[in-house]
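Sample pair:
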Amino acid sequence: MSQKRITLRPESDALLVVDVQNDFCPGGTLPVPGGDAVVPVINSLLRKGRWKLTVATRDWHPADHCSFQEQGGPWPPHCVAGTRGAEFHRDLDRARIQKIVSKATSREKDAYSGFEGTELRSLLREHGVTRTVVTGLATDYCVRATALDARRAGLEVVLVTDAIRAVEVKPGDAKKALTEMKTAGVTLVSSGEILG
């Protein structure tokens, strides 16, 4: 799956940690199978990598968010702002995350991408970021949307394949998402190919 070894550029690389929240991990209301397995890999990247910026995105929904089944949406209630389910996984090395970007914060608007309706693009621009290294949950939803929007914004994008997990609502969704990202110019690597 890997295309090439990546040498980090501390002057222009950002690590994006997408939605590693309790509700998307085992025991949460919308768990991604094996979702918590990304945490040690992400922590290694946070601790061993040299980054211009580290950013974590999070779903931060009102209690009556449009994506919830009670409101006619596809998902059970999850990541309600201020609840335990919306908190980052307890083992995630929060101390090394410099910025937090909240998304889908209004009742009537959903957002899978960390760029949609947020300050993420301007934040990356302010810090001189030209390449994003993407990790988190879930491969076939918020990771996919964030990576594709980063490409649309003109950024180089690297996806760390052992630091993501998929929902797989339909079998094959993960593979389809990876193919779509690769076709859009996203580079797929393992954490070992970044950290050496």
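The chain is about 25% helix and 20% strand.
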